[in-house]
Amino acid sequence: MTHTIRLQLPYHLRNLAKVGSEITLEVEAPITQRSVLDALEARYPMLQGTIRDHVTQQRRAFLRFFACQEDLSHESPDAPLPEAVASGKEPLLIIGAIAGG
After folding, report:
1. Residue 93: is it exposed, middle or buried by C-beta count within 10 angstroms (0-12/13-18/19+)?
2. 14-45: b or e for each residue (b if 16 or more CB lie within 10 Å)?
3. Positive or negative: CA dihedral 34, 97, 74, 81
4. What is the DSSP letter of 52?
5. Fewer CB in 10 Å around end: N or C, the chain?
6. What pTM did the predictor assign?
7. Which domains does the chain have, with CATH numbers?
């Protein structure tokens, strides 16, 4: 079953993919971080390696995943995303972390 997922990317990734502030993706169930990122990279190949490492598939250190006001960054990539994301009611947010002293 295919779901329409809403996704918001940080500015530098929107610029790279040449997209607006929110995109929609068709994603096959189950709806997980991995399935959403697989669909994103398939549709926008220029983003491969920018959100997760090419080899390990681990999330890049300065990116965070949020949905439904929850930080999902440390969840398993295969854990189901919240129902509000799977149904398209809420977007999955990929946010660039800010570091500094």
Report:
1. buried
2. beebeeeeebebebeeebbbebbbbbbbeebe
3. negative
4. B
5. C
6. 0.91
7. 2-96 (3.10.20.30)
